[in-house]
Structure formats: structure tokens, C-alpha cells
Amino acid sequence: MQPLLFRPLLKRIRWGGTRLGTRLGKPIGEARDAAESWELVDREQEQSVVLDGDLAGRTLRELLQQSPREILGGAGGARFPLLLKFLDATDRLSLQVHPNDEQALAFDPQEQGKNEAWVILDAEPESRLWLGLKRGVGRSELLAALDHERLDDVVHVCRPRPGDCYFVPAGTVHAIGEGILLAEVQQCSDLTFRLHDWGRLGADGQPRPLHLEESLACIDFSRGPVDAVVPLRRRVDAVEYDELIRSPWFGIDRYTTDRPVRLAPRDEFRVLMLLTGELAVGGEGFSRRLTRGTTLLIPASCGEVSLAPRGAATWLEITGPPHAI
């Protein structure tokens, strides 16, 4: 099966902006609140649709029902295990937490946990991330801070910079702050529990619902602060790249190069998210030119793929879990 492009699913939310269009080339039109571009998704109510070629108009779910091994490889599975996004935050998101796989089953037998990672594409000088509780903070300290609106006393605050990568395991208290553009890789889950919403009102003029008990049940109070990962420098052939994440749920590598890269066939899917520049992608019977903001699924059954940057280009190479979902 040849590499596949899908139509992005654009989400307009009050905290969105315009950088999905201006920086990543997404078709946001006149929208000033374009918050998320879902690049690859396989959920009941949200489906990626093939953009072009012989399979144009087919959903990712339909392809997986017909050809699971060809797309996912030996790990198999009933659905695509990841959800890939770009996010543009012009206002801070709620302080929230996600369940792990075991906890998710208790809330919804059809769901899984939500471990995620962020790669920062742009951040204003004063932008912040809230990531993890400070050391020694337990349930009582957190509740007291929530009651007195003193979250910075108990939640670790980071100053993100372009290029930073953060791994956010399930159970981590977190929030994305203003002025941040990022790529997100996560398990394909929509279980989010809102711990605090900064005193804001919803579109109906009322406070949005909080999920205090669910959040407290999912928080890992032993984790402590979360900081940017330290990339590991690797080399394939004559090209160096950064290994950002290796986890049971997904892996992320980042290439920044002007040299060609060869992707040998592997019994697993790979996804390319092009962050900057242009990239010519070729192989037996296919060729494509990717521009910034493009996401490409390389099925497990695809043969060798060549990547040729036009000048320097930066992209993420994402792999899935080594087990069935």
C-alpha cells in the first residue's frame, strides 16, 4: 500500500488563532479561532478521509477494516492507535488530567488511556506550560491551592521554547498556556477531566463543568514536575536525527536536514509530520511533494521510501505501539 494523505479536520475553539493557516498552510479561511487540526484520527464520530488517489474518499476506519495488516503491520489492532494534531493556543487551556489505560476502562469500556507528547513549534517569550505537581504536593495541598486560586504554588511551570519536546504521561496535571503552537501525538482517546478553568465562563455565560473527583482519581501524585525531554542524537546512514520519545504507546524522532533519507521497509506504520521546508517523497510507483504542515501515513506494507528535502527541512517520524490496540 502506498503512502496516504488525509484531509485535516479543523476545530474552531475560543482559544484558537490563525497560525494553523499562516504557519502550517491549513485552509482556515477567515477564521480567527482555528484551534486544532486533527491530522490522523480513527474515532466513531471523527474520521480521517483519504485526500486523493485511488482510495480518495475512504475513511481510515474503512481502510483498517479491509486491510489492517497492510496498514498497521504485525502489531495489528482494531483501530488506528494514535491521534495526531497541530494546536494553536492564543489563550490558556483548562488545567486537566487524563486517565491511564486501566482507569479509562472504568470510565468507558470503549476508551483507552491518554498518554501524549508535545513538540513546540512556536512560543511567545512569556508563554507557559503547567506540567506536573511540585514535589511533595499531595491531595490536600492541591485541594487547598484550588480553593485559594494559588495553582502556581503547587503546579510546576515551564517556559517552552521552539524545538522543546514534552512527554505528558497519563495522570499528569497539565495545561497549555497562551501563545503556543505545537504538534501533538497522543493515544486515540478523548477522556479529559477538567480540574480548574481559571475562572472563565462558557459560551452560555456559566462556568464550564469541572471533574474534580474524576481528576483526583486519575492524578499520579508520585510523578512530580515534568520538564522538556533531552533528545538523544542518533544516526541513520550519514544523516543524524534526534530521538525524542520512546514509550509503550508511541515513538517520535525528529529530522532536521538537507540530505536525503531512506526509509527501509518495516513491519509497522510510520507517520511523517512536516514542520518546515519541503520534502519530496518517492518510491516504487509513487511520488509526492510535501509542504510544511503536511502529514503523511506510510503503511506497514509500503516498500522503501526516499525522502529528499528541498533545502533544509524538519519533520517528525512517528511510530505506534508494539502491541495491538
Tell me what the structure shows.
It is a single chain. The protein is mainly beta. It is built from 6 helices and 20 strands. Strands 1, 13, 14, 15, 16, 17, 18, 19 and 20 form a 9-stranded antiparallel sheet that branches. Strands 2-3-4-11-6-9 form a 6-stranded antiparallel sheet. Strands 8-7-10 form a 3-stranded antiparallel sheet, with no helix packed on it. Strand 17 and strand 18 form a beta hairpin. The longest helix is centred in the middle third of the chain and has 9 residues. It is globular, with a radius of gyration of 20 Å. The mean pLDDT is 95.
Mind sketching the topology for me?
Blueprint: E1 4-5, E2 9-17, H1 19-22, E3 34-40, H2 60-66, H3 68-72, E4 82-89, E5 95-97, H4 101-107, E6 116-123, E7 129-133, H5 139-147, E8 155-158, E9 165-168, E10 174-176, E11 180-187, E12 193-196, H6 212-218, E13 232-236, E14 239-246, E15 251-257, E16 261-263, E17 270-283, E18 286-291, E19 295-298, E20 305-319
Antiparallel strand pairs: 1-19, 2-3, 3-4, 4-11, 5-12, 6-9, 6-11, 7-8, 7-10, 13-14, 14-15, 15-20, 16-20, 17-18, 17-19, 17-20
Write down the Rg.
20 Å
Mean pLDDT: 95
Could you give the order of the helices and strands? EEHEHHEEHEEHEEEEEHEEEEEEEE
Tell me, briefly, the overall form.
globular
The largest β sheet comes out as: 9 strands, antiparallel
Number of continuous helical runs: 6
Q: By helix and strand content, what is the structural category?
A: mainly beta
Strand residues, percent? 35-45%
